[in-house]
Amino acid sequence: MVQKPIIALDFPDRVYAEQFLNQFQDEKLFVKVGMELFYKEGTSFINWLKSKGHYIFLDLKLHDIPNTVYSSMKVLAGLGVDMVNVHAAGGSKMMEYALKGLEEGTPKEMERPKLIAVTQLTSTSEEQMQREQLIDRKLEDSVIHYAKLAFKAGLDGVVCSALEAGEISDATNKSFLKVTPGIRMIGDNSHDQSRIVTPSDARKLGSNHIVVGRSITQAENPMQAYERVKHEWELN
Ligand SMILES: O=C(O)c1cc(=O)[nH]c(=O)n1[C@@H]1O[C@H](COP(=O)(O)O)[C@@H](O)[C@H]1O
Question: Which residues form the active site (predicted)?
Answer without folding.
Answer: 61
